[in-house]
From TrEMBL, chains A, B:
<dbReference type="Pfam" id="PF00535">
    <property type="entry name" value="Glycos_transf_2"/>
</dbReference>
<keyword id="KW-0808">Transferase</keyword>
<dbReference type="GO" id="GO:1901137">
    <property type="term" value="P:carbohydrate derivative biosynthetic process"/>
</dbReference>
<keyword id="KW-0333">Golgi apparatus</keyword>
<dbReference type="GO" id="GO:0000139">
    <property type="term" value="C:Golgi membrane"/>
</dbReference>
<dbReference type="GO" id="GO:0008376">
    <property type="term" value="F:acetylgalactosaminyltransferase activity"/>
</dbReference>
<comment type="subunit">
    <text>Homodimer; disulfide-linked.</text>
</comment>
<dbReference type="GO" id="GO:0006047">
    <property type="term" value="P:UDP-N-acetylglucosamine metabolic process"/>
</dbReference>
<keyword id="KW-0812">Transmembrane</keyword>
<protein>
    <submittedName>
        <fullName>Beta-1,4 N-acetylgalactosaminyltransferase 2 isoform X3</fullName>
    </submittedName>
</protein>
<dbReference type="InterPro" id="IPR029044">
    <property type="entry name" value="Nucleotide-diphossugar_trans"/>
</dbReference>
<keyword id="KW-1133">Transmembrane helix</keyword>
<dbReference type="InterPro" id="IPR001173">
    <property type="entry name" value="Glyco_trans_2-like"/>
</dbReference>
<comment type="similarity">
    <text>Belongs to the glycosyltransferase 2 family.</text>
</comment>
<feature type="domain" description="Glycosyltransferase 2-like">
    <location>
        <begin position="264"/>
        <end position="385"/>
    </location>
</feature>
<keyword id="KW-0472">Membrane</keyword>
<keyword id="KW-1015">Disulfide bond</keyword>
Length: 506, 506
């Protein structure tokens, strides 16, 4: 009886003990596992979707979701250039003879691989973070200049308590250290690619982590080092970008900010001096002192009596884009205005308005209109293994913030104002000798943000034939060069195929 | 009695139940909280560092740790240009008069802010991940082209079990959707900036997350959208980079890969036709058919009878870098070799060797030596609020991989081979009219990877005066232009101050 009673008491005690434990466990459970249930007042909806019936949207639906201007802008294995609506479609391969093509493809691939190597392409696959990592760390935006040192922000350990903490950091393109002053046995590998922290104090661990530094040790431009942070089985990885800052190339507009210290006009002429002279006269009516840069590949050099005209002669018939590239290479002002040699300035040709647009927006280039023609077009690129697909559509993407009459697009007419430094960076490919225009905007894809403001208008000289027999002869020769011959077209298609590594276009 | 016995049995049952629970809890605790203690055999070290004595390394120690070539490459509030060893030191502000300086500073700041706006600078502070987030997500490398759609990889929920799961995704520059086919009440906000998932099935939740898509909706170049992923109080944030791919500009070396289809030679001349002609002759001894591009700003144009020389005339005395920029603007081959007009080709001037280096490495520019002078120098940049500090040191950073006799550096002598497209992107600033050289490599900092191979040697024509009186007169005028006048030096210092936004240099 006594013994029974004592066992009974013991059971009672144990019961109470476990009951207490149970309550603690239950509270923990309810607070931690169902945080909502405690807070949320309204009854929760019970969406009905059995885990069994997992399925994807039908492809037609996905196509309709992510189609823009008739182009399905979703990753696919292969892009196509099917003629769409009244669009033409070009297959650039056709620019080469079938017998040459295999060799051309090999050369193109070899050149592309060299290009990729230098650009650090293709980029590595995205870095994925696992769930429930016990670390705080910087997922994005840590940058260091080559050979420089930076503190790595946001490093922290918030794992469970332990008698001893061991955290290891690893880098590959640089070395690690910590500004924390600790005994050697706490931090090992200072100034090496692997840094190990070993301490029994969480406070010490986090103090050391908060002061970890990364030092770039190899002189490289634009590389990404993936640094890892490990403890037991948990591994966090984050990128450290090694890169030089962009070197600014600023232009001093001068104390009075005169237009002539902000803008130069550039043009290219060939075998039609009378048009050029007429254009120059029209410029002087409205802008008496702006610098005008003229590139000329005619046979005879001209005499131009204008102290603000810079005149350059080129080998005969060197070509249209060579001349444009020469002209912009000589600009020393922040902005350059491009005009053709047969344009005509009027009181609607307000350069100041275009300057105001570039000053107040992020645009690199802003076009006006030539007698109402703005020639706005959008360019879309689709990736594909053996060359991208280019799609061209007339029109614009969106209105320009702050300028309701202007828009953002990919390409504009031959009358535009541009940031000189940006224009020079893209350049006009001197390989394009004759008819060429859009080629420049294709080369500028991704590096030039282009806008269009139709209210700034320039005129065009009449196409009526000239009286003077010499000039007429020149114009005749000019028209021959100006003609977009079949060879020229083939050359341009081949250039898109090889140079831009495009496969086709619509 | 009976009642007591039943209560006693109940207690017994409860005890067993809680005992079981207790054991489970204990096992969980031992496995989860002390994973090492179970695995590690050796006794753990007990580093001695009391959390109380947290301290940082003394500044002198930090300086010594992160000093390179005498420059402390660690972030500081202010950089200085103290003359170091036998280095000179320049304070670029001194190029301006004290009365002009305040206005100059304001103009420079305004131009710098415009530049920053267009470059998306300054970059936002790093994105920090908190510890123990219940999500898997991509920390780095997710990219989308403007207006395109991508699946977001690596999204996953691994939080604790719950009767109902609610996960919300938010974007700011684009919209979100999922390819998972679900009832409307499970996924809300498809095609909008906020997507909400509500389900009682973890499997369904993860299926939906695995198929989330991001669509860029604003046409922009190079922006970073920070997408957030939320559940209860946990928030993960990751970057989605909106950017156009770099448009390749490849050159076709042609079926036989002849040197003349790979390389053009570019030079600039002024008032010393005899030197130019001697140089051209020396080129033809070794490279009979390479295209040579000549930019000339002398008074009288030359007659050059060489079908492979392209000759360009400029306004008189337009200047040194203007001419260099003109010359490279006309190149149509993959590589361009820069030479001065008074150099002399010899059998040691092996262009093929330099081509081989650029073909097999990631260098953009590789210099040779002019009679043994390689003029190698390194450039270091230190950031500072009111302008960076530039440090120049002779020598190189490291040997060039694969070419033991070549090195990687920042600047080289006036005899170098370069990737045409890269060279044109940096360009020679036409504002630099007279003595200039390093200015080009400073402009190229961060965009040109430069190497030097001393074994490729070009000669230099003797400085002995000419007999011919006309030529002697020309050389006299030339020497006046060539002189590095005090005004010229002031102009260059001012250019570094304003254009490159540099504060000082050593």
């Amino acid at each position: 009886m006594t013994s029974f009673c004592s066992r009974c008491l013991w059971l009672l005690k144990m019961s109470v003990l476990f009951l207490a434990l149970g309550i603690v466990l239950f509270m923990f459970r309810s607070v931690y596992l169902y945080p909502e249930s405690s807070s949320s007042k309204a009854p929760l909806p019970q969406p009905s979707l059995a885990a069994g019936m997992l399925k994807l949207l039908p492809e037609e639906h996905v196509e309709s979701l992510f189609t823009h201007d008739g182009i399905w802008l979703f990753p696919k294995n292969q892009c196509k250039c099917e003629a769409w609506k009244h669009q033409e479609s070009y297959n650039f391969e056709n620019a080469y003879g079938q017998t040459d093509l295999p060799a051309v493809k090999m050369r193109r691939q070899a050149e592309f691989e060299h290009f990729q190597r230098r650009e650090g392409l293709p980029r590595p696959p995205p870095l994925l973070a696992q769930a429930n990592l016990p670390f705080g760390y910087p997922v994005h935006g840590v940058e260091v200049m080559p050979l420089h040192t930076i503190p790595i922000p946001g490093l922290q350990f918030e794992g469970p308590d332990a008698p001893i903490y061991k955290v290891t950091l690893k880098a590959s393109l640089g070395t690690l250290n910590t500004l924390a002053d600790t005994p050697d046995n706490v931090v090992q590998g200072r100034g090496q690619k692997q840094l190990t922290i070993l301490t029994s104090s969480r406070k010490v661990l986090n103090f050391i982590l908060q002061h970890v530094t990364y030092t770039s040790t190899e002189y490289q431009h634009h590389r990404v080092d993936v640094v890892s942070l490990e403890s037991n089985s948990s591994v966090a990885k984050f990128p450290v970008t090694i890169r030089f800052p962009v070197m600014p190339k600023l232009y001093d507009p001068g104390p009075e900010r005169k237009l002539r210290n902000l803008v130069s006009i550039a043009t290219k002429t060939f075998l039609r001096p009378h048009k050029l002279m007429t254009m120059l006269q029209s410029i002087r009516e409205y802008y008496p002192d702006l610098t005008v840069i003229v590139a000329d590949d005619s046979k005879e050099p001209l005499k131009i009596n204008d102290s603000h005209v810079e005149y350059y002669t080129m080998p005969y018939g060197k070509g249209w884009f060579a001349g444009r590239n020469l002209a912009i290479s000589q600009v020393t002002t922040k902005y350059v205005l491009w005009v053709d040699d047969d344009f005509l300035f009027s009181d609607k040709t307000k350069i100041e308005v275009l300057v105001d647009v570039l000053e107040k927006t992020e645009l690199d280039v802003v076009g006006g209109s030539v007698l109402g023609n703005t020639f706005q077009f959008k360019l879309f690129l689709e990736h594909s293994k053996n060359g991208d697909c280019l799609h061209r559509r007339t029109g614009f993407f969106r209105p320009l913030d702050g300028f309701p009459n202007c828009v953002v697009t990919s390409g504009v007419v031959n009358f535009f104002l541009a940031h000189t430094e940006r224009l020079q960076r893209v350049g006009f490919d001197p390989r394009l000798q004759r008819v060429a225009h859009s080629e420049f905007f294709i080369d500028g894809l991704g590096s030039l943000l282009v806008g269009s403001c139709p209210d700034v208008i320039i005129g065009h000289q009449p196409h009526s034939p000239v009286e003077d027999p010499d000039l007429a002869a020149l114009e005749k020769t000019y028209s021959i060069y100006r003609a977009n011959t079949n060879n020229e077209i083939q050359f341009k298609l081949a250039l898109h195929y090889f140079k831009n590594r495009l496969q086709c276009a619509t």
